[in-house]
Design brief:
Blueprint: H1 2-19, H2 35-57, H3 66-75, H4 84-103, H5 109-126, H6 134-158, H7 165-178, H8 180-189, E1 206-219, E2 227-238, E3 254-261, E4 269-284, E5 290-304, E6 309-326, E7 329-346, E8 358-374, E9 378-393, E10 397-413, E11 416-431, E12 437-451
Antiparallel strand pairs: 1-2, 1-12, 2-3, 3-4, 4-5, 5-6, 6-7, 7-8, 8-9, 9-10, 10-11, 11-12
Helix pairs in contact: 1-6, 1-7, 2-4, 2-5, 4-5, 4-6, 4-8, 5-6, 6-7, 7-8
Length: 452
């Protein structure tokens, strides 16, 4: 039940963020650059998390000493056996706290990134009695940067220094829930009470859908055992990637898809996100009607359900394009290809007392999504992701995963519409020392959607 409420709170926070947006702007007063405070806050975060583990959870790994730090540095890094959710969901959130300790103390995106690495190194070497791990360092750093900038920008979207009274309280509280470190820094600087004649926060347009409905699922061709469950889905697009800009900034465009179903959200949840790191707009076609964005993107994936458990951090190139086909009809395409810096996927043949049931891997990812939009007849969205993982720890072998989503939404009344989505997963694993594994999963969702 706790996880259900956490999931609902997550959706409500982001819905409030969207409802609170105002006109696009990036005119803000600079925050004093205080790397010293950022370092102190990162150390405080680590000590606070350690103290909670030591005094409340009584975690064996929190039994640290001078000698444990020496052993950690002498032994070096290894691959840890923690559960999938811990390594690919919890660690990126932890890294987000480090990132925003720097970001909300005046550092830019790029200036904030070393602080995430430093905070993770401090934790791995000095705050655990377990040996430091490669996967924790990489996922906390890369995932923390990605989640951190998203949380920073969503909190900025909600804040408004012009607001007064209960509206101001709602905005400050909501932003602090999204970005706790940012909220703390606004409190100690006195920014929560500052009143100005302009918003003083980064603004970008946001579009997307929030959907609820039912999902039917079946495995392979087993149509006799179709299961149905309630589902919640959210798609969000931040920024205007295909509006011509002379200069692009990191994360001034990102897209985020989230869905969950059933009571146990850790077993039926998917998050796929991509964000622009570097990019440039250009135009082609007759009268420059076709607009493009080419750039370097960061992807973050987390899929945890009955058939497949996989995720990771990917860096790669992409090309987004908008084609005006005819009156009221537009096609947007976005092919991407990138290197999976670190990933994880199912492993049926090796487990540990900590719950490890997946391989650590590297590989590559290919993504193609396309959106066909009509003013009257709605939109058709195609999203295909291909992952190829090569195990670097665990049961040696390769893992291929196909993930397909095809969704049609039609408006019915004002901002509300009906949607139908087909989803498909296919996993083809080939092991060096064990039998191969092939699995497939199909799902059909009927959705009531709100467009914003």
């Amino acid at each position: 039940m706790k996880k259900i409420w956490e999931c609902l709170l997550f959706i409500l926070i982001f819905a409030a963020t969207v409802s609170g947006q105002i006109d696009s702007s990036e005119v803000v007063l600079p925050i004093p650059n205080r790397p010293d405070i950022a370092v102190a806050e990162i150390a405080t975060i680590n000590v606070g998390v350690w103290a909670f583990a030591y005094f409340v959870l009584d975690g064996f790994w929190s039994q640290i000493s001078y000698q444990s730090a020496v052993w950690n540095m002498r032994h070096g890094f290894e691959w840890d056996p923690n559960v999938f959710k811990t390594n690919f969901f919890d660690h990126p959130y932890h890294g987000n706290l480090y990132f925003n300790a720097a970001r909300t103390n005046g550092m830019s995106f790029w200036e904030s990134t070393p602080f995430v690495f430093g905070g993770s190194m401090m934790w791995e070497l000095f705050m655990e009695s377990e040996f430091p791990s490669y996967n924790d360092l990489v996922m906390t750093t890369l995932g923390g940067i990605s989640v951190g900038e998203v949380m920073f920008r969503f909190s900025e979207q909600l804040l408004d220094d012009r607001a007064r009274g209960s509206e101001r309280v709602f905005r400050e509280l909501g932003a602090a829930l999204i970005n706790p470190v940012g909220g703390f820094n606004r409190l100690i600087r006195g920014d929560m009470k500052q009143k100005r004649s302009f918003a003083n926060h980064i603004r970008q347009p946001i579009t997307g859908t929030l959907s609820v409905g039912g999902r039917g699922e079946w495995r392979g061709s087993d149509f006799d055992n179709i299961k149905t469950n309630p589902t919640v889905e959210m798609t969000l697009h931040y920024g205007s990637p295909l509006h011509m800009k002379d200069k692009r900034k990191p994360f001034d465009y990102f897209t985020f898809r989230f869905w969950t179903s059933k009571a146990d959200t850790t077993r039926n949840m998917a998050i796929t996100a991509r964000a622009l790191l570097l990019g440039k707009n250009f135009q082609t076609g007759v009268n420059d009607q076709v607009t493009h964005l080419v750039g370097l993107f960061q992807h973050h994936d987390y899929v945890n359900n009955q058939i497949v458990n996989f995720g990771g951090a990917t860096i790669g190139s992409g090309l987004m394009s908008r084609f005006p086909l005819r009156s009221n009809l537009t096609l947007i395409t976005a092919p991407h290809i990138g290197a999976v810096i670190i990933g994880g996927s199912n492993n049926e043949y090796a487990t540990s007392s900590h719950g490890l049931n997946y391989n650590y891997s590297w590989g590559y990812k290919v993504r193609l999504d396309a959106l066909l939009m009509h003013d009257t007849f709605g939109s058709l969205y195609f999203d295909y992701n291909y992952f190829f993982y090569n195990a670097i720890q665990g049961a040696q072998g390769t893992d291929r995963i196909d993930m397909l989503s095809l969704e049609y939404n039609v408006p019915i009344w004002e901002n509300f519409g009906l949607g139908l989505e087909y989803i498909y997963y296919y996993r083809d694993a080939h092991y060096r020392d064990f039998a191969d594994v092939q699995k497939s999963f199909n799902g059909l969702r009927l959705l009531v959607s709100y467009f914003y």
